Amino acid sequence: MDQDPFKEYLRQTEPNQRDKGYVWNTAIGLQAVDGLKPSSYLVETAIQNIEGRITLEEAQELLDTYYKENPEAMKEDARTEEADKVSVRIARLLSEKAFSFTPNEYLSIHKKLFGGIYSHAGKIRDYNITKKEWVLDGATVLYGSASELRATLDYDLSQEKAYSYKGLSMDEVIHHLAVFVSRLWQIHVFGEGNTRTTAVFFIKYLRTLGFEATNDIFAENAWYFRNALVRANYNDLKNGVHETTEFLELFLQNLLLDERHELHNRSMHISGIFSDYQKADIGEEKADIGRKKADIKWLGKYKNLSFSDKTIAHVQKMRETFGTKIIFGRSDVEKVTGLKHTRASELISILLEAEMIVSVEGYGKGKHRFQ
Prior knowledge:
53% of the residues lie in helices and 2% in strands. With 371 residues, the chain is mostly helical. A hairpin with an 8-residue loop joins β1 (357-359) and β2. The chain is globular, with a radius of gyration of 21 Å. The two termini are 21 Å apart.
């Protein structure tokens, strides 16, 4: 699947197609926060809607029918159905003008996105959670306590509703918005689907403040958005790590002010290990001649992360087999490492997030290469 199937529509001068293109691009791009990818059928359906051949309601009906009549479609990736259905639901929500800045609206968005997918859709979690984060070197953010979730949600939204932006500079506005959305996300009201719910709620809220938020920043930087939320809510003072909204502010400056900051996940890793990471120039002979040395240095970076020795061994095999020029997919990873389908997919997701591999267009769905 083309990595940017809607680019031509984003360049349209006809407002209706352009706006639909942004909505779909965002809806599909946000699936990446949970490592999900939509099917080619979903993309084709989205394009039909953008071109005015079907309505959003018809797009959702087509998708529901597709999965009812094609249960085999789930075999390749059990979560593709989730990515497809949630994408069309996000598209519908972002296309609606109606919005209420209330806790009930927040809960309702989750229910609309995940109804029939999660049994807890729209329900506040009743258990505490932790999540290992790559950007935190395997540590977790301290999420809201299960016993206080509704009260915390009510408080945060009431404080924001009463806040006045009058007289603030744009830098101050951006900083405040970063603090607000990071605190809202940190509550983690639901068992799953918090980032996608928060993003939809936040985009709709931004519109009430006069921001269009209609560009491809969310679509192209969904992982960055989530990692920036993580960094805004994590302290490890013993090791000199402080919570910071600086990364979220860069993201928001691109989203709301059309600035062009480079957004790299590796820049947020708390170890600082990627701060001097340089992308290899695969077009020069010198890069090939020195590749063995580069590989050793590259593996050294991995050994400082919270990866097991077995994972490091798998990555080494992949790097030695593929180098920086060979295009590979999940089945190739399975052959080289001996991993099963699910674990091979997880390994690819980890390497994508670490920006050690990149997705490659024009070679079919799910193709990558090392940087």
